[in-house]
Design brief:
Elements: H1 2-20, H2 22-27, H3 29-41
């Protein structure tokens, strides 16, 4: 289960930069990561 989550996590943040730009990703990285991980914790 954790392996699949990790693969999805890596894939998610590998695609995002190409769509939103590295500056946007870096600026909101911490907040987005916390929200993203929290969705798994409460799932």
């Amino acid at each position: 289960m954790e392996v699949l989550q990790f693969i999805f996590f890596v894939s998610f943040f590998s695609i995002i930069p190409f769509h939103f730009g590295f500056n946007h990703l870096f600026r909101h990285n911490i907040l987005d990561t916390q929200t993203f991980l929290r969705s798994f914790v409460h799932a």
